[in-house]
Amino acid sequence: MEMLKGFLFAWVIAFSLATIAVAQNDPSGFINIDCGIPAGSNYTDIITGLPYTSDECYVSGGVDSKISSIYEPNSPQRQFLTVKSFPLGTKNCYTLTPNEGKFGKYLIRASFLYGDYDGNAQLPNFDLYIGGDYWDTVTISNESTVIMKEIIHTPSTDSISVCLVKIDTTTPFISALELRPLNTTIYPTLSKSLKLFVRLNLGSLTNQYIRYGYDAYDRVWLPYYFEKMIIVNTTQEVLENSYRVPSAVMSTALTPDPLTTTDNSVSFNWIADSTRDRYYIYLHFAEVVELLVTQTRQFNIYINDNLFYGPMYPIYLSTATVYTVSPIYGADRYTVVINKTATSTLPPLLNAFEIYKEI
Ligand SMILES: *[C@@H]1O[C@H](CO)[C@@H](O)[C@H](O)[C@H]1NC(C)=O
Ligand SMILES: *[C@@H]1O[C@H](CO)[C@@H](O)[C@H](O)[C@H]1NC(C)=O
Ligand SMILES: *[C@@H]1O[C@H](CO)[C@@H](O)[C@H](O)[C@H]1NC(C)=O
Ligand SMILES: *[C@@H]1O[C@H](CO)[C@@H](O)[C@H](O)[C@H]1NC(C)=O
Ligand SMILES: *[C@@H]1O[C@H](CO)[C@@H](O)[C@H](O)[C@H]1NC(C)=O
């Protein structure tokens, strides 16, 4: 058995509280910047209903451009039709000044669709920094693919700088920059920032991504399916917990398909750099099937064969989040296995999960 460093079974579980059952979609404190639209212009986005503004109050310099019209159909949202690029200078920064300043915790998302805006057909490659620290490298490998980089960040000052840094002969650019205040009690971490590794909505019935409107924090939930799994779902509202995963995400889940597998577990794995990568994991569960009195659904959660949490009984129409409070690290591969207990009559289910990497 491989022992994980830092893996002292440090988990916490957040249950739903009736007081926050109703999703209040209050976008106050959101900063929505559509980079590259004319200075002084603004609009209401038709998908999210959020008001977007131009970026001249947040950054100096840069050039506004439209993406090539051949890529316009690839743009799922209006924010991707224009970009701001920075041919001059090595480092160009946006300054965000959120309402709660350094007392807040924020989800910040930078989005990029190259769309051959410069007619050079040369795919850019550049670094992103936040508050002076390296965040990530943006490597555009396809002119028509949207890249989103997300971070959960607690700033040490009242303003936050998001910088684009030139690392070769290509020119940094950006399509949209968004900031959403989070409840400071969620995604607890010892580091200043967590960058998103993956966020999946398991067993979507629509195969559409879900974001603001449904998600009060405007996280983007991607639909995802595992082989040999079936979708279980409810048409009822699922109660939120402090993580506020929307009912639209929690009302579907994946569970092993008894017709194609005898394996009574839901599992997934990913490859890591054991010397560098440190992860935080958030597993979101809710029972979506009204069980008969003779039925039980009970399972254990293992990470690399270490019992992480269990036994777990998902509650009917109520979200519970099981999450790490300190990072797991030290392995080349992580395998999460959620398997039924000996007495459970039903196999496990999983509604959604998120994995973040420490910065
Ligand atoms: C656009 O800006 C004007 C002037 O500041 C403001 O009155 C209007 O409400 C804004 N519209 C949107 C959609 O943000
Ligand atoms: C970019 O992605 C599109 C859509 O997935 C694909 O059709 C195209 O071949 C890709 N282009 C390159 C250069 O890989
Ligand atoms: C699951 O979704 C399907 C399709 O929307 C719906 O017909 C069915 O009633 C749902 N199941 C439950 C238990 O609500
Ligand atoms: C943040 O979450 C805590 C714990 O769930 C809750 O008590 C508090 O009311 C929340 N604050 C806001 C502003 O939603
Ligand atoms: C559940 O999975 C863990 C980790 O793979 C394994 O060690 C354990 O034996 C499994 N338990 C059952 C009852 O299958």
TrEMBL record:
For this record, the Gene Ontology CC terms, alphabetical, are:
membrane
Q: Which residues cross the membrane?
A: none
Q: Does the UniProt entry include the keyword Signal? A: yes
Q: Where in the cell is it found?
A: Membrane
Q: Does the keyword Signal apply?
A: yes
UniProt signal peptide: 1-23
Annotated Malectin-like domain residues? 33-357
User: What does the record say about its membrane topology?
Assistant: Single-pass membrane protein
Keywords, A to Z? Signal
Name of the protein this chain belongs to: Malectin-like domain-containing protein
The lineage, from the top, is: Eukaryota, Viridiplantae, Streptophyta, Embryophyta, Tracheophyta
